[in-house]
Design a protein that fits this description.
With about 250 residues, the protein is α/β, with parallel strands linked by helices. It is built from 9 helices and 8 strands. An 8-stranded parallel beta sheet has the order 1-2-3-4-5-6-7-8. The structure holds nickel (II) ion.
Length: about 250
């Protein structure tokens, strides 16, 4: 069964058919989905989906890309939401310098606060890092999240051991299947079998041969196949270990 450790069914791209799609998940082999929050409304939606569907779990947090919307007091709301019985993580949180470094200091400060919150409430952090590896690594090393995952890990075989030494899991998604993505292909077989998670980041990052389409959890099968080739496992074995790993990390 497929466990999708990172998705955004709250995205406006699912406005037309969100529930029709979620209804079909069990029959398409999906046993679990973690819907990640990026701000207060999407965090609340993640928990609403988890109330409606047994197989959906919620993560709540503030994405670095939403830093401009962040207001004093929002972290108290995130903390309150984290007490929901199906909230399994704080996320997604982290650093993203892709669209400029204008709010770099604000991003760092909020990332640190959310790691501390995760440790305080005893939940893993789901970390987003884009073009900010060294700052992200320094913060993780200093703040020591008790548990967590680097979502859609964009590192390489040199940076992988740094993250593994922090005890974090490695999220692998559609980017593994992209043509030219040599570094992820080289890194993937080096991930210990008990530390890998699969994810879509739906609606984004659909794997080859569906690249460019709206992504959703059943498409993970293409990522699982590629991981299997690289790790010398069958697709079924990949799905089984990644489901077990996700359940362990998220306490399901
Ligand atoms: Ni995401």
């Amino acid at each position: 069964m497929i466990f999708d450790s990172h998705a955004h069914y709250d995205s406006h791209q699912f406005d037309e058919d969100r529930f029709a799609i979620l209804d079909t998940m069990p029959e398409t082999g999906v046993s679990g989905i973690v819907n990640c929050g990026c701000d207060i409304p999407s965090s609340k939606m993640s928990l609403d989906f988890s109330d409606k569907y047994d197989f959906v779990y919620g993560a709540v947090g503030f994405h670095p890309g939403c830093i401009e919307d962040y207001k004093e007091g929002d972290l108290d709301i995130i903390k309150e939401l984290s007490h929901h019985k199906k909230c399994v993580a704080i996320g997604e949180v982290g650093l993203d310098y892709h669209y400029g470094k204008e709010f770099k200091e604000e991003q760092k400060e909020l990332f640190i606060k959310q790691i501390r919150l995760a440790n305080e409430v005893g939940k893993p952090v789901i970390v987003h890092e884009r073009e900010a590896f060294s700052d992200c690594y320094e913060i993780l090393k200093a703040e020591k999240p008790d548990k967590g995952v680097m979502h859609c890990f964009s590192g390489n075989k040199e940076t992988l051991p740094l993250i593994l030494n922090l005890g974090l899991y490695i999220g692998v998604g559609g980017t593994l299947t992209f043509k030219n993505n040599v570094k992820t292909v080289e890194m993937c077989p080096l991930i210990p079998k008990d530390r890998i998670l699969l994810e879509t980041d739906a609606p984004y990052l659909a794997p080859v041969p569906l690249r460019g389409k709206r992504n959703y959890s059943p498409y993970i099968i293409h990522v699982a196949e590629r991981v299997g080739e690289l790790m010398n496992l069958t697709t079924e074995e990949v799905l089984k270990i990644t489901e077990e790993n996700a359940k362990k990390l998220f306490g399901i």
